[in-house]
Write a structure and sequence with these properties.
By secondary structure, the protein is an alpha/beta fold. Strand 3 (46-47) and strand 4 form a beta hairpin. The strands form 5 sheets. A 9-stranded mixed beta sheet has the order 10-9-8-11-12-13-18-22-21, sandwiched between helices. It is 36% helix and 18% strand.
Length: 490
Amino acid sequence: MKRTPRVYIIGAGFAGVSLALELKHKEVLGEVVAFLDDDAGKIGTRIEDIPVLGPIEAVVTLLDKQPTDEALIALPSAGPDRVQKIYALLEQANFARIRILPSLSQIVDGQAHMIQTREVDPQDLLGRTPVHIDLRASMQYLRGKRVVVTGAGGSIGSELCRQLLSGGAQRLYLFGHGENAIYEIDRELRLLQDEGVGERASIVPVIGEIQDRDYMHFILKRLQADVVLHTAAYKHVPLGEANPVETIRNNVFGTKNLIDAASAAGVERVVFISTDKVVEPVSVYGASKRIAEEIVLSATENGHTYMAVRFGNVLSARGSIVPLFQKQIRKGGPVTVTHPETTRFYMTIPEAASLVLKTGGVGVPGGLYLLDMGEPVKIRELAEQLIAIHGFKPYEEINIEYIGMRRGERVHESLLAGGEQAKPTSHQKILQISRDDENRLDLPELLRELRPVCFPDSSRPDVYRNRKALRSILAKYLPSLPVPEDEPEY
């Protein structure tokens, strides 16, 4: 018979107490032995008849532990430095399993649930001090609404869906073209609801393709959506360089299909997820999102609130650098970095999602917004941190190799282009970007030139799927985008 694990909960605040109470009712999941806390006012007391021990650093090595004992970090408002220190102490104490409760942005109703706990992820140990947002108040504009999330199975899309559970939406449509990804987030959300997380929104998975113009018009009218959060896009820079026509077809014309369909269906509000790579783009991906930004911002004549939110990289997103580094570390290295001085702007996925939801409520029609990304992070230092977090010495046990910049990449990213200015909004982490007229694209003409490259046109068969023609067109409107001499036609 399997023994019930003994659990030490790190943190005797509201989150830790919530988890302890749940474990009392679900004994099969674990028996709480003690809280560990640094609060002098709690140390030596009992909460829910469970002793509070501390300070954490002093007692963690003195515990009368058993080999199967587990630790659960319940400090949702703690910054990454503190979490990293506590995690290191728990690892040294040889706990059989260490789990963590996600950040405060994911605990909207003041109740933590065991279903929300998970294994410790690098984004818990890196990044910045969590932004505290009253997400329930921020999502009032979604209450009773029908909300569509495109790209719902992706990193940002799925986190938006998790947080939307507490937004009071009437229906939550999970839209995406990846069958397995939509299946996974659909199952996860239903399980969260079953365990008491969030409110009882109806969850509806929708398999579809934003490149299908007729279907987008049909489905948005059929769903009677009030709000669309548009995260769907091809996002991988090197793959975009290798497949430039498909990147434009999906990111540009897919967004055009969505915006046209949303306007025709009377969708009140669209929030488009943009990227810092739109700033004087040097990649096809950046160019595609820059044009998509323009498509969204130009759709203001219908009187509805369509806006774009620009931010940098997110930690631990699928296909991003952190999961790649982890795989390289697990196989013994080397960890590959493009350039010793490369920097990127980073935030955690939950932080980005909560700020996007907040922006959706405060944004104005045609507004372009920028999330405060803080200081840029050196990729070399990020690699060193990850190696150390995994218990190795950088350069001694796991080496870092520099492989050179790939096509479409640059050493440093920017958040604002020339002629753009950021001004504060009612939220300190959200800025609004004002633009000169020179920063606006001649959208109708640009789309007219791009269309025969992406779609068959009997009058222009020579340019269909022609990569070199595509880059030449893009560079005419976005001069920062290079046209390599060795770019093949197909």
